[in-house]
Amino acid sequence: MKLKIILIIAFLYCFTPTIFSQSKFSLSAGLGIIQSYGTAEGVEIGVRRVINDNLGFQLTAGYYYWGKKQDLNAIYIPPSNYDTHIVRKMGLLIPVRVGFNYVFGNSNSHPYLSVEWAVNYITNDYYNPVFATDAVNSLDRSYIKSTKNTVFVSLGFNMGYSFCLSDDFNIVSGVNWQTSQFAQFVGFVSGIEYKL
Asked: Which fold has domain 27-195?
């Protein structure tokens, strides 16, 4: 319930033009990669409201997908007579981040630092081993797949640089780090920002 209230307040704060001037808003979209149990690729969109010359409030959402088989990792369960393990494959990650953005300097091109709180939705595919022996006692392994969906919160930082293209457009590139008790993510995002 608290999460819904926070997201509604953030949405109203960002999108109420009768209270805030539209010229203080910017929209962004970009492509990114995340490293955590393998590499995921995805997209992000965001909205930022300028509070003063150096401080802003931002809301960002993304979609990342782990699609490569080499990104499987094994969780070993001892003790066992065989190489018994459960394989976990990260499926997709949908982060929704809210935070404050600080711009260093007053020029059109500038470095920035953000402190962000995120709600993350992630899917994990678990492959549990099933063993069978044939007539000559050779061991064959197959897996039963199960999927687990998890929602968790994380805290992180985003730092990067905004390159001015024109009065209305910037190219934004940054490194994002998020951590929680469930997982840690390090990512790189590059995209374009449009000032309304």
From this structure: Porin (2.40.160)
- The string of pLDDT tens digits covering residues 105-120 is 888 889 999 999 999 9
Task: Write down the domain spans for the chain.
Answer: 27-195
Q: Collect the ranges in the chain with pLDDT lower than 50.
A: 17-22, 69-72, 75-81, 134-139
Query: How many Å apart are CA 101 and CA 193, to the nearest integer?
Result: 14
Whole-model pTM: value is: 0.73
What is the C-alpha separation between 84 and 89, in angstroms, rounded? 16
Give the C-alpha separation, 169 to 38, whole Å. 33
Q: Where are the alpha helices (DSSP H) in the chain?
A: 2-15
Amino acid identity, position 1: M
CA atoms within 13 Å, Cβ hemisphere of 76: 6
